[in-house]
Amino acid sequence: MSLRQQFSWLTSALVVVLLLGNLYVTLSHGRASAEQQLHARAYDAATSLAVAMSQLQDPSDVHVSRLMDALYDRGFFAEIRFVKLSGDVIERRREELTGAFPSWLPTLLPLHHERAAADVTQQWQQLGRIEVLSDQQLAYQHLWRTMQAELGWSLLVLLLALSLLHVFLGWMLRPLVQVEAQANAICERQWQQQETLPKPRELRRVVLAMNNMVAKLQSMFSEQLALADQLREDSYLDSVTGLLNRRGFDQRVQHVLTRNEEHSGVLMLLQLQDFAAYNSVEGREAGDAWLVSLAQCLQQACEHHSLCIIGRRSGADFALFVSCAHLAQAQQTVNDVYAALSSRAAAQQQHPVMHLGGVFLQGQQADLSQALSRADVALRQAQRHNQGAVQLYQCADAERNQDELSATQWQHLLSQVLLEQAIELQFMPVLNRHQRLVQIEVYSRVEWQGHTISAARFWPLVEQWGLAADFDLCIIEKVLSCLSEHDPGHQVGLGMKYCLNVSAASLRDARFQPALLRLLRRYQPVSANLAFEFPEGALTTIEAYLPALAQELADLGVSLGVDQVGTGNMAFAWLQRLPLHYIRLDGSFNRGVYQTPDHQFFVQAMLQIAHSLDLIVMAEGVEQREDVDSLLQMGIDGHSGYVLTQPLATLQQVSDWVDRLQQPATESGNRNHDQPDGDASQV
Q1: d(CA 491, CA 654)
Q2: What's the CA gap between 455 and 443, in Å, rounded?
Q3: I need a surface site. Which of 181, 445, 514, 654 has the fewest CB within 10 A?
Q4: Are 418 and 407 in contact (CB under 8 A)?
Q5: How far apart are alpha carbons 76 and 78 in whole angstroms?
Q6: Res. 404: pLDDT tops 80
Q7: Could you tell me which residues are beta bridge partners of residue 195?
Q8: What is the per-residue pLDDT for 494?
Q9: What is the pLDDT of residue 316?
Q10: Each residue's pLDDT tens digit, 563-598
Q11: What whole-number distance in Å separates Cα of residue 599 and Cα of residue 591?
Q12: How far apart are CA 597 and CA 606, in angstroms?
């Protein structure tokens, strides 16, 4: 019950008590006055009738009856009796009490009065005694009219008082409503302060205290965000260009190459020739400005790729890893990057000569040092040209992938996949600290000529050919169809969130959101089991689309999250701006976290920030038991990775795996040895 309702009920009770008391007093006084009037009237009538009878010359029964009838017919008396000395009685009596009042009124307000009596004498001789009883009907009619008037007035006063009280309480308690909205806004990660202060001193103090608390929380949260941003900058970013430093780049690429999932991309090394001489001629400020301009050009050249990692390794050396599907696309990517750099350089009269070398990487468990060595070989080949050049590492015939598809074959394959909806799903369980299933990550792959092709290989071409929205919708419909067919009563289906990565290119496609909402409404209520994730690195281009989409998804019960947290270049203020339910830390920060203090500090900072905003924090790509223990000790809400299991092909396999997980420890020690083999890549 609200405070306004409590005040209203209390005031109503007080008003009702006062009005009932006033009604009781009024009716009590009215009844006493009526009893007095009835008695006086009966006494006067008895006296006057006795005098009249005493004057009769012939006090026969006929004359006495005429006098009694004359008085009785006036209607003010209920009973008139003349009792003779002989005991005979002449009387007039009304049998029932009737009138314009309810029958319960005499019971509620009984009138107590006695018969008035007077002696009838003639010439000092007593003839008898006259007794008169007043009629109560008029008295009850008067009391009933009085009660009606009092009740009507009381109800009018009550309604008027309640109306005025409602308006007054609404005005007086408005600051409390604003305080409630202010508190709810804090829960929604919005820092609102009340500009208008209420006049009542107590309410003013409450509002001032809330404003001070909001300011303190905002300051603390801003300090946490600034600390996390500063930590990332100091540990993983280059101070001049804002790109990843050598450590950050190697960490990200090492995670991509060794995460037990298929990778496909081109690793490039860029070097500016005689940059020291350029600095000495143009000055260090001009050199730094050129490096910043070069970094911006690299970011713009690679912004449309699904995966792009850019770093500065040393003074004039840069490194890039860009996702691509096949060797021809890798060659095209290298040429496009170099062309963009050349165009930027041509805009300046004097600039250092640039050389670019790259190597196409595809498969599993590649070695970073070997990949860098091959990219460096290509760079040395490009440096043979004094005016700048680009070179892609040429593998020996024995090293070439015999299963490599041509661009035409890729186009035919992806067209067939869309036409036949031939995408296969895989499921990666996410466990909490109590080893309970809390989420399921959904991966995708396709089968071609007996070979499994993960999304990491074909997705760059999907985005290049503008098919991202069609593929995302196909995958989402596959998951919804799978959930509709699965037993909803099982713990894998009941209330479980299935997390799907959605491409930033899809969100930028005007066709995607309307089609997505139609699809989700068609599969209600299982659509409430979905959660959509967007990579942190893409937030710069899609943040404007997310608030409206999040509102539509919230109405359907769909959650929203951000994955690969820690890999973007934006400040972490987006945690406060976006309507999120959870975040997922990138696996590069979880790998070896038990022995890396910087990673531990970063994870702890993200946990503090996210938990202060009521966000759930998940860790992906965990592959060592020591990392799991360290993450759980820091307070992670959920974790996934090959340390638990490989991606599972069906929901039934997930159910079986969960059942084995919940068996006693003596029986579950060997459960990881019989997991089904598989390979997956996140959509």
Answers
A1: 10
A2: 8
A3: 514
A4: no
A5: 7
A6: no
A7: none
A8: 61
A9: 86
A10: 999 888 778 888 888 889 999 999 988 888 999 888
A11: 9
A12: 14
Domain 407-655 fold is TIM Barrel (3.20.20)
Q: Which helix (H) or strand (E) holds 312?
A: strand 308-312
Which H or E element spans position 29? helix 3-54
Q: Is 629 or 126 the better-scoring residue by pLDDT?
A: 629
The letter for the amino acid at 519 is: L
Place of tokens 């009792």: 83
**CA distance readout (Å), 608 to 235, 575, 593:** 19, 12, 17
Q: Mean per-residue pLDDT for 642-654?
A: 89
Q: What integer is the mean pLDDT of 325-346? A: 86
- Tell which residue, 242, 241, 225, has the closest CA to residue 233: 242
Question: How many CA atoms does the CB half-sphere of 86 hold within 13 Å?
Answer: 3
Q: Where in the chain is the domain with CATH 3.30.70.270?
A: 246-398
Q: Is 108 exposed, middle or buried (0-12, 13-18, 19+ CB in 10 A)?
A: exposed
pLDDT of residue 534: 92
Give every CB contact of residue 444 below 8 A, 6+ residues apart in sequence: 423, 424, 425, 426, 454, 455, 475, 680, 681, 683
CB 627 within 8 A of CB 593: yes
Contact by Cβ (8 Å): 483, 493: yes
pLDDT at 493: 60
- Enumerate long-range contacts of 623-632, CB under 8 Å, 24 or more apart: 623/259, 623/260, 623/591, 624/591, 624/592, 624/594, 626/594, 626/595, 627/590, 627/591, 627/592, 627/593, 627/594, 629/594, 630/593, 630/594, 630/600, 631/590, 631/593, 631/603, 632/433
pLDDT at site 267: 93
Cα torsion 142, 144, 148, 149 to 10°: value is: 20
How many Å apart are CA 94 and CA 132, to the nearest integer? 12
Nearest to 638 by CA among 399, 334, 381, 432: 432
DSSP letter at 43? H
Binned at pLDDT 50, 70 and 90, residue 557 comes out as very high
- pTM score, whole prediction: 0.70
The conformation of residue 323, written as its DSSP 8-state character, comes to E
Range 228-233 average pLDDT: 80
Most distant CA atoms of the chain, gap in Å = 164
Question: In which region does residue 118 sit, left (phi positive, over 0), alpha (psi from -120 to 50) or beta (all else)?
Answer: beta
Residue ranges of the alpha helices (H) in 237-359? 246-257, 275-282, 284-302, 327-346
User: In which residue ranges of the chain is CATH 3.20.20.450 found?
Assistant: 407-655
Structure tokens at 3: 């405070």
pLDDT at 58 over 80: no
Q: How many helices (H) does the chain have, and how many strands (E)?
A: 24, 19
Give tens-digit pLDDT for 505-514. Answer: 999 999 999 9
CATH code for the part of the protein at 3-164: 3.30.450
